[in-house]
Amino acid sequence: MNKALRIRPIKSPVMAIVSLFCLMPLCDHASAWSRVGAVEVTDHAGKPCFGLPKKERKRIGKTPLVFGVEVHDAVTPPLRRQWSFYFADPASISLPLGACVVYGEAPANAVARQTAMPLQPGRLYDVSMSATRTGATQFHSARFCMKANPDGSLRAIQVHYDKALGWSPSVCLP
Predict the structure, then answer these.
(1) CB-CB neighbours of 137 under 10 Å
(2) Distance of alpha carbon 140 from alpha carbon 153, whole angstroms
(3) pTM of the predicted model, to two decimals?
(4) What are phi and psi of 10, to 5 degrees?
(5) In this predicted model, what pLDDT tens digit does every residue of 125-152 receive, in sequence order?
């Protein structure tokens, strides 16, 4: 009753090509999870502002649409959501060149998941942005921290991975 599964080699070049074309959509779907795009974090009057760098915009090839943004504390497990919004399908906002989404300022037609929590200086935060997809890009992400200025105001600084320090918010320490 236990019959062994027998796999027969494809001998016809035509059948091999047809089989390959039938499997290609599966490979494309799998690759959609393979890339995380970049978010550009800038300072906007003491608040982080999230946009897309030129390289991502070039990859998209048109004005990108934003479908949602989430910011999490990247230090304390479990990672706590600091701020989040999304749009009910099919709504979105356009993100023209030079524009960015300011922390805590959700668009009027967005659904808030989490109102903005105060960001602490010297802590590491993650931002994820759901935006126009291209090829293998599923979403966009970056890390940032807040730096306290001598006058007590805060400034957002993007944190890049360092081979020696890892994801260190040391650029934001006093």
Answers:
(1) 18
(2) 28
(3) 0.77
(4) -85, 120
(5) 999 999 987 777 778 999 999 999 999 9
